[in-house]
Amino acid sequence: MTKLSLHDVTHRYPARGRRGSIEALGPVSLSVGDGEFVAIIGPSGCGKSTLLRLIAGLDGPSAGQISLNGRRVTAPVPECGMVFQQFALFPWLSVRRNVGFALRPGMAREKTVDRLLDAVGLAGFADQFPAQLSGGMQQRAALARALAPDPEILLLDEPFGALDQQTRGLIQEMLEALWRTARRTMLLVTHDIDEALYLADRVLVMSARPGTILKEVDVPFPRPRAPTQRTDSAHAALKGRISDILRAEVMASMESSRDDRDI
Ligand code: ADP
After folding, report:
1. 225 in Cβ contact with 176 (< 8 Å)
2. Does the C-beta of 45 come closer than 6 Å to ligand 1?
3. For a disulfide at 83, which of 28, 59, 159, 211, Cβ 3.0-4.6 Å?
């Protein structure tokens, strides 16, 4: 079943301090199945965050259509959870209150919060405040908070980009397990090809700005994914393919920033 569909979606931003606009994205057409995990990878500035913002209904596309559950997205979508690179926790609330923030008070909230804190390995830190936690712990709390209202679709914008390699690996394992349990539709923007191949069912490789989908790569590895997958030859081969496409696009993105395609 199709959860999310985009048809010829483009986005332009007004150019700062001058006339005209910046072509940031598209046209992008895309269909994401219910419960599918899709990773999006592409050069910096190609419109990945813009794409997620449009899907969440935080901005309207300049042209084209986005539908979630067959309904056109025209306003912020309550069924969307989001996690960003900046942890975005409320510093004045405990971990428990952060995670339960979007839920109505009551027994069900406490149960959900306990379950999620357990799943992200923060059961012993419920009463701590964000400033008392490491970056990795804060991001686990942010992940738990985004999952607490049981969103139909979770949008992750480079959520692990600021974390060290070790911590990142652990959180990726947690996210893979959470996805397997909850089977929610997830879209992950990442620069890390290993991360995309470890987590996703499908990887979309985007072109330089204005970002379009250059290539869709199905990830054939069985679940549950093993952390050792990264050392397999099939993983390395797929990584090499994606890396080659990306390298060409990063060069193109450098060219396009030189001859500024703004209009
Ligand atoms: P990515 O996430 O792939 O790095 P973004 O979606 O953040 O790319 O940005 C795509 C392009 O749109 C970039 O050139 C960026 O500078 C531009 N852009 C993003 N947000 C705005 C904005 N609010 N106003 C003007 N330009 C923007």
Report:
1. yes
2. yes
3. 159
